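Late entry, evening session. Most of the bench is empty. Finally got around to the prediction I had been postponing all week. Sequence below, unchanged from the version circulated by S.P.
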Amino acid sequence: MVIMIVDDNKKVRTMIQQVINNATATYFEFSDGHEAVENYAQCKPDLVLMDVKMQRMNGIEATKAIMKKDPRAKIVMVTQYDDPNLMESALVAGAIAYVTKDKLLEVRKIVHGDLLRLSADKI
């Protein structure tokens, strides 16, 4: 499995990797949405874990851009903001799930779950 982690905080990216605890995964890390969009095609991730608020390009705009490149992309927003408006914007942009950082174990469930089901159903 190839996982792209996009967050402007290196410590958070490391923490997400530790929580996922998937030794068989290949990880690519980027610090903003612009980098994620620019590198998406080369990385070919099975799953993107995307922060919402970042410099240069936020996660919602990056999700829109990635979905234009690959409508089958699986993007999970991982954010500290428990905000219904941001969640709705993320899902409309194409995210399959919206998880707050205080519930990172949900990300582990998503990663270890059935990604084929997630591509068809929004969480």
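Two things to note before I forget:
Residues 33 and 62 are 5 Å apart (CA to CA).
Helices lie at 10-20, 33-43, 59-69, 84-93, 105-112, 115-120.
Will write this up properly tomorrow.
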